[in-house]
Amino acid sequence: MANGQPITGADASFYMHEAAEATMMQKGIAYKAAHEAVLQKYNVSPYSVYHPEVIQQFSEWFNQGFKNFWGLK
Q: What domain of life does the UniProt record list for this protein's source (predicted)?
């Protein structure tokens, strides 16, 4: 972003997810419903929303499904 490169991959998935989720919640939709609706809207795995570097750095916060999705140990 800082060097003018477009956002891609997990970073794009995270930003798009959070922006759409916040918009839905501002309209009164509950968090869980908004979260699920955004995953369906963009047709993405819930595991794709977090970058593998985030999962590695905070591994205690993520289950094995996230690690398997990204091929992490």
A: Bacteria
